Give the backbone structure.
Amino acid sequence: MNITKEHKDELNAIIRIQFGPEDYQPKIDQQLREYSKKVSMPGFRPGKVPAGMVKKMYGKSILVDELNKLTSDSLFGFIRDNAIDILGNPLPAPENDDRLDLENPGTIQLAFEIGLAPQFELEVSSKKSFEMYVPLIDEDYISKEIENYRERLGDYVETEEAVMHGDLVHGVFTELNADGSVKEGGISRHTDVHDADLKEGDAEAFVGMKKGDSKSMDLKTVFSNPTVIAAILAITKEEAEVLESTFSFSVETVRRKTHAEINQDFFDKLFGKDAIFSEEELRNRIAADSNTRFSKDSETRFFNEVVEDLVKNSTFTLPDEFLKRWLTSTNEGKVSPEDIEQNYTNYAKGIRWQLIENKLIRDNEISVTREQAIDSVANDFLAYMGGAIGAGEDGLAQARSIAERMLQDEKEANKVFDRLYNEALNKIFLDKFTIQQVALPFEEWVKKVSEPLN
């Protein structure tokens, strides 16, 4: 067997493979003997079919299978052993189509086009500066958060008349006939009505109603969508979509959400018993927790802007024509060459980042082990569950067991490894680049970290 590499230019090469009968015939003969032991044919006992007949029936398919395996093993073994950094996968050269005679293969010569990864330098240093957008956690923001907590932890108390903003009206919907009489065997359902269920601007349908009041209404004009109607009447969405009846609603109770008082019971419900003891401590805790919670969003935006900048300002060249052919072939007819051409800028952008990412990982000797992945998933699970599965070694062991099962799913495992590599890269960016923090009012910050990259 003989394998060589020929450079067409700096980014394109051809690998040529030549092998003769001595390379493939012994394996084909072995496969034919195995087939002879198993093949069944009328007039012959199992295992007694003449070798010539077996070869005539299966010889070509065995030859093709063995040649494919030998070619693949040889090609990728050569690439691996010679540390050739390729993009995509090798593509069979057009000349291969005329070179294989299955009747008399003899010496076989094959050629494969490869795209070579460009060599380039990458500077990640304090000479380059980026902005890090952080939310301004001011007194106004903290006060709004406290009001949200007070509303969330408030109780419903019975009141006389519905105004619907925060009210919960409990009553019974009864299906009516066209003349307004109660429909025999129709829908009758006790339920709660929240203002969030109503179409925007239609809260007045219940405003002013008191205990004992009744009103007829067309539910489709009152509630926001068929899903809400289905939930209120305990019917299917499909039934709600074709529902034409008018309903009577009779009020049984009206309750209003009150805001919780700011006291020790309020503090304990929020953060656990005796975690804080005053409104000042509450405000400080909200500020600290908010900064921690939003820091990930700030860092994610920073990471994405760095990636965009590195890709945009990369000057290395790609083997574009090879990559276009490879992208067409790898999509197996699902994408046309015209589609690839039209969207190639985006494809190339992804390939550029892969090359930059791989270089950063190599240059900084970044590695992520499976044990680290398990620890990360387990810790995330414990944080999400809080104290629900217990603390200490037993809780950690249970979380790690869940993490190990989750990482058996290749897609999930890839997501976890990608995230951990990104986190490691972001630490390098934060350490090596010059960072200028820009504090924005909360709503502006949300808009900024959510807007598309340039």
About this structure: Residues 162 and 207 are 5 Å apart (CA to CA). The longest helix spans residues 279-312. The domain at 155-257 is CATH 3.10.50.30 (Chitinase A; domain 3). The chain is about 50% helix and 20% strand.
